[in-house]
Design brief:
136 residues, mainly alpha, N-utilizing Substance Protein B Homolog, Chain A
């Protein structure tokens, strides 16, 4: 259920990045067009609203954790997945950090490029280790 919610959240965040529309109405319309249990969609809403509200902080953490990379150079899918997982790691104390990391890596394998999973894992591991809000 949560994997599906994360995948829906990633797709919604990608749409927000492309359209620039982060309204609740746009998210509702998006979720109406995708299959998923009510709990998965509820979890997706929680993640999307959190990422949208914490976007500057998440981008700061990602920038600090990516050596020699500018955010503009990241593939949009990887950038949104990093935001999503970093949000879980830093702002969701009810979700164990290892679960967030594992889920992000698995989703990267499905939606990203051949090298995405390793890159995502490295960046998120750094964020998790430097985050004051959660510890491994």
């Amino acid at each position: 259920m949560r994997r599906k919610g994360r995948e829906l959240a990633l797709q919604a965040l990608y749409q927000i990045e492309i359209t620039g529309d982060s309204s609740i109405a746009a998210l509702d319309l998006f979720l109406q067009h995708f299959e998923g249990a009510a709990k998965a969609k509820e979890f997706a809403r929680r993640l999307v609203s959190g990422v949208v509200s914490q976007r500057p902080e998440l981008d700061r953490l990602i920038t600090e954790s990516t050596e020699h990379w500018k955010l503009e150079r990241l593939a949009k899918v990887e950038h949104e997945l990093l935001r999503l997982a970093a949000y879980e790691v830093v702002f969701c104390p009810d979700i164990p950090v290892p679960v967030s990391l594992d889920e992000a890596v698995e989703i990267a394998k499905r939606f990203g490029s051949e090298d995405s999973a390793g890159f995502i894992n490295g960046v998120l591991d750094h964020i998790a280790k430097t985050s004051a809000n959660k510890s491994l």
